[in-house]
Amino acid sequence: MSADLPRGLVRSRRTRVLALALTFAVLLLVALASIAIGARAISPGTVLDAFTHYDRTLDEHLIVRTLRVPRTLVGLLVGLALGMAGTLFQGVTRNPLADPGILGVNAGASLAVVMAIYLLGVGSLLGYVWFGFLGAAVASVAVYLLGALGRGGATPIKLALAGSAVAAFLSALSSAILVIDAATLNQYRFWAVGSVAGRDGTIAAQVAPFVVVGAVLALVTGRMLNTLALGDDVAQGLGQRVGLIRVYSGLVAVLLVGAAVAAAGPISFLGLVVPHLARMIAGTDYRWILAFAALIGPILLLGCDVLGRIAARPGEIQVGIVVAVIGGPFFIALVRRRRLVEL
Q: Which parts form a coiled-coil structure per UniProt (predicted)?
């Protein structure tokens, strides 16, 4: 890691804690907005009443408890998972442009869902979750095994190349199935756009254990990634097992992305932008970067989800589309304003 890396907007431990608390407060406000704003606006007071004095006969209470709260919970989990996973991928590969798609996770999950619809007739989001998770895991293992071939083992460059190759191959298989079967395409496209709409409490409960466990394991990697950022030779000289660190961090990232993609479909740019925002605030210490990414991810996802509801009211634009529309120009502006560092 070069000596001139930016140290972040906040540098002392005390200011970082305060900044983290402020970020958490922003997350709470965005979550409240996600519950209150939609095709039918609901006041904050009514939202509070839906929790403290729930009345099944009131439409507003039913909307809050059965539709918007589960949707917000899924958004929180997915945003947290993608934000932390993107940070892990960038730390492991030491590539500032790495995102969860670098190990073929999105492509693997998408192919598994397509095959589940085409071969098994699966037609519910509840069924997509497990097939998406399985596909993400299998694709990631395949990428690692392919990247580990040859001399030097699974280096960052070989993993990136292997990931790109596997993702292209799996995407081609998915496209082939969708072209020959219109019914599969009609079902798949609602999942593939990337959305938290229509997700109920059952899906949130299913993916929550994976995301929570993955988040805890990801926080443990902070010191490891700090050492890895110094370079492989230095890390080995300090007694670190570089290969083991990469395998561990990669598996944790796959766990997080697999859960997120299975629940909400492939959502681009979030895992790419969030680590850079966290690094702008916290500097180069991955212990703090991961903590900020865990909060910034859901802030961006829920914020984009709310924007999608406002922009097309009384309908809505799915969050995957809003993230892509906002994320692309935002990341270009980020690159122009701040030199992308060599991690």
A: none
